[in-house]
Design goal:
InterPro entries: Gfo/Idh/MocA-like_OxRdtase_N, Gfo/Idh/MocA_oxidrdct_glycsds, GFO_IDH_MocA-like_dom, NAD(P)-bd_dom_sf. Keywords: Oxidoreductase. One of its GO terms (molecular function) is nucleotide binding. By secondary structure, the chain is α/β, with parallel strands linked by helices. The chain has two domains: 142 residues, 3-Layer(aba) Sandwich (Rossmann fold); 119 residues, Dihydrodipicolinate Reductase, domain 2, CATH 3.30.360.10. It is 41% helix and 24% strand. The chain is globular and about 55 Å long. The model has no long low-confidence stretch (mean pLDDT 95).
């Protein structure tokens, strides 16, 4: 008996900036698991241009976008995402959420609670977690007894260009890059119990994490250093040979098929994966620990 493939998930996109243009829109429009139905953005002309490029409609407002889709993807600043994600969840829409979940911990809690109360599927766009090389690294890490770990996420995007605007320049690397490394360290080494921080997130911030299994890990974060390419690296150490993951040569586009496939499968089954809003909230809790150190 021939099985009929599930209908593509109809996704509306909120946002029309660089990340929406370079990642969300082409990924969602490529299918076959998803169909980009509509785009809404604060700038109508940007939404219309992006929608036209991918065969979608430009929504005149949030209500029109919600009426056109069964899931909503977000490519907007954290404060905007936190507000509109609550609204979309209450409307019964599945959510494809960017990191961080919100601009601060109370906002992230509000999103996670709205998702739980509405019973909708949610998934975080922690792009690196969907790359085959990252999956292979984490599979190997499960068999290791890690004593300590070092990691970094460094680039110069805050020095100029499309990403050197708004909340990224105000909040810096901790809120923008921190979720990626904290997620990887928490998964590869073991659950993080506490985070200490020093430095300036707008220049360079250093994190030290204590894990529940007794391991200690370190993370260096900066978006304001001149490098030929972004550098993301995790090194695990213990009684066995070191295990290293490096993002060199691992482009975002290689993550899109699995990200899209897993989101669509979660929406159709009604069962979210491990990278849901609750995971995003946990990462925001860890960031809040670090921010308390920096504020002191």
């Amino acid at each position: 008996m021939t099985r009929t493939a599930p209908e593509p998930v109809r996704v509306g996109l909120i946002g029309a900036g660089p990340w929406a243009r370079d990642m969300h829109a082409p990924m969602l429009a490529a299918g076959p698991q998803t169909n980009l139905t509509a785009v809404w953005a604060r700038r109508p002309e940007a939404a219309a241009e992006l929608a036209a490029a991918h065969g979608a409609a430009a929504a005149a407002g949030i209500d029109e976008l919600l009426d056109s889709c069964e899931a909503v993807a977000f490519a907007v600043p954290p404060a905007v995402q936190a507000t509109l994600a609550v609204r979309a969840a209450r409307a019964g829409k599945a959510l494809l959420l960017d990191k961080p979940l919100g601009p601060d911990l109370p906002a992230a809690i509000a999103v996670a609670e709205a998702v739980a109360e509405a019973g909708v599927v949610s998934q975080m766009v922690l792009t690196k977690r969907y790359h085959p090389a990252t999956r292979a690294f984490l599979d190997r890490a499960r068999d290791l007894e890690v004593t300590g770990a070092r990691s970094c996420y460094l680039h110069g995007a805050f020095l100029g260009g499309e990403m050197a605007t708004g909340w990224r320049l105000t909040e810096g690397a901790l809120l923008d890059l921190g979720p990626h490394l904290l997620d990887l360290l928490d998964t590869a080494v073991g659950p993080i119990a506490s985070v200490r921080a020093t430095g300036d997130p707008r220049r360079w911030v250093e994190l030290v994490c204590a894990h529940t299994n007794g391991a200690v890990s370190q993370a260096s974060l900066s978006g304001s250093v001149r490098l030929p390419r972004a550098r993301t690296r995790v090194e695990l150490f213990g009684a066995e040979e070191e295990l290293v993951w490096d993002s060199a040569g691992a482009g975002h586009q290689e993550s899109w098929p699995l990200l899209r496939e897993e989101f669509a499968a979660a929406v159709r089954s009604g069962v979210p994966g491990p990278l849901d809003a609750a995971r995003g909230l946990r990462l925001q809790e860890l960031i809040a620990m670090a921010k308390r150190d920096l504020a002191g």
